[in-house]
Amino acid sequence: MNKRALIVVDIQNDYFANGKWPLAGAEAAADNAARIIAAARDAGDLVVHVTHESAGENAAFFLAGSEGAQIHPKVLNRPGETVIVKNHVNAFRETDLKATLDRNGIEDITVVGSMSHMCVDAVTRAASDFGYQVTVIHDACATRDLEFNGALLPAAQVHAAFMAAFAFAYASVLSTDEALAVRGELRASA
After folding, report:
1. What is the pLDDT of residue 107?
2. 3-189: which CATH topology?
């Protein structure tokens, strides 16, 4: 049986309604992430929380030591669960994430979190490039509207574009309900 890990990416207070950088659908995504976290814990999977900290007083959000940089209460880590603090978009860059996964013999990774088009994208692609089997839970991820070259891109379209790209070459992309059903089938056949 493959060893599995859940990577919970940047579900931090600044991404919610009263934060400095609110995302579309952050509450619903966090609710679904909490369901995935509970299932991972019940199965004895490694749960790794990744948080972003920005250096400098002029940071737009996730200022180190601020309330906004704290893990959101819906998905708080438990004592003993690994918390990786990153300062770059990619959670593997200049952190011990890969060493943690390898030390635990991880082969399969599930990803939930924020933002779909940035940190979720970076960790998903890097994990796939490192040879892990990756699953992204699409409704446990959130993003925001973007603007490019004068065009406004609604968050739902940004999110869908990134999920489509993952599904094309980098990861299995499932809903929370689909992922929990698969987990139930695996448990029943064990």
Report:
1. 97
2. Rossmann fold (3.40.50)
